[in-house]
Amino acid sequence: MLIAGLIGGVVGTMLAQNGRNGSVGVLGQPLPGVEEGAAPTTPVEAVAARVLPSVVQLRVDTPGATGEGSAMVLSADGLLLTNNHVVEAAAQSGTVTAVFDDGRTAAALIVGRDPSSDVAVIRAQNVTGLVPVELGNSDSVRVGQQVVAFGAPLGLGGTVTTGIISAVDRAVNVGPETGANTPTVLNALQTDAAINPGNSGGPLVDMQGRVVGINSAIATTGAQGGSIGVGFSIPVNQARRVAEELERTGRASRAVLGVTVEDNPQQAGAIIREVVPGGAAEQAGIRPDDVVLRFGDQRISTGTDLQAAVGSRAPGEVVDVQLGDRTVQVTLIAAPN
Asked: 283 by DSSP, 3-state: which?
């Protein structure tokens, strides 16, 4: 027993010394080399390399609070696109600071904002050499298509997540839970790419790195507001029209149908309750108690669906409206300023 104990002690000492002198396992192996400037090896990596230089983190400071959000570069001299609800609090008394991918920071001023579409255009001051995004065509987006979301969730700038388009033409209410003072309804792209507070205003892009949407809202199951894989983005075609008007005039026009609607849980469609005299609906022959089933190529199940569909169009557009017993053509008019 004494000899066995002595041998065991010697072996244990030798093993301990070997452990201190260097492992014979993977811990003792050298690190792989770093390939400087190596080309991206995955599609998402390639998209991230292309888009990240155009993504901006926003810090919004007001007398009573501090907020954060995201934006994307529209021009090399500092024009940025974001959500209205990101910068709305700073419109009266507050400041917006843009933090760029290369580490530069700049004060940003609001050029124009539109609560009804939740779009805003701002300009970073005294900057040059920024990398603008490439805008895609959101009308070509398909359910199941892979997309990549960019932004600064929870203040973590340069965050990249990926997923698919889960649905198109999704009617989404945006209100105080997103930080918006003015409630509105969006006709949105739905995605399961992780979007969290702070992502708002950042780009949703296709696998060519082209912007197809502005990350704007999420569905949640509790007060914490974290991602559950149900995020919503404003289609870029809608945002582009609004942004062009905001840059040019500081305000945006909004299409209206000229009706009030109600829902019947037992019946699909938006039920027309009242028709505004002289409005687009009356001129097209729409009457109270008509039921709207389709607006253009969009199926209408509720009044919210109809509100979102109308809001996604421009004044002057001509749209086929399918009612319960007939189809009419409506020329949308602009809402009064």
From this structure: helix
Q: How far apart are CA 127 and CA 75, in angstroms?
A: 10
- Give residue-wise pLDDT tens across range 50-95: 999 999 999 999 998 899 999 999 999 999 999 999 999 999 889 9
The answer for 154, left when phi > 0, alpha when psi is -120 to 50, beta otherwise, is left
Dihedral angle, C-alpha 175, 176, 179, 184, nearest 10 °: 20
pTM attached to this predicted model: 0.86
Q: CB neighbours of 3 closer than 8 A, spacing ≥ 6?
A: none
Name residue 289's amino acid.
D
Which runs of consecutive H residues, i.e. helices, occur in the chain?
A: 2-21, 43-51, 84-87, 236-249, 280-284, 303-311
Percent of the chain with pLDDT over 70: 88
Rounded to an integer, what distance in angstroms lies between the CA atom of residue 166 and that of residue 302?
20
Structural domains of the chain in order of their starting residue, each with its CATH number: 45-124 (2.40.10.10), 134-249 (2.40.10.10), 255-334 (2.30.42.10)
Are 235 and 187 in contact, with CB atoms under 8 Å apart? yes
- Supply the residues annotated as catalytic: 85, 118, 200
Q: Which H helix or E strand runs over 71?
A: strand 65-73
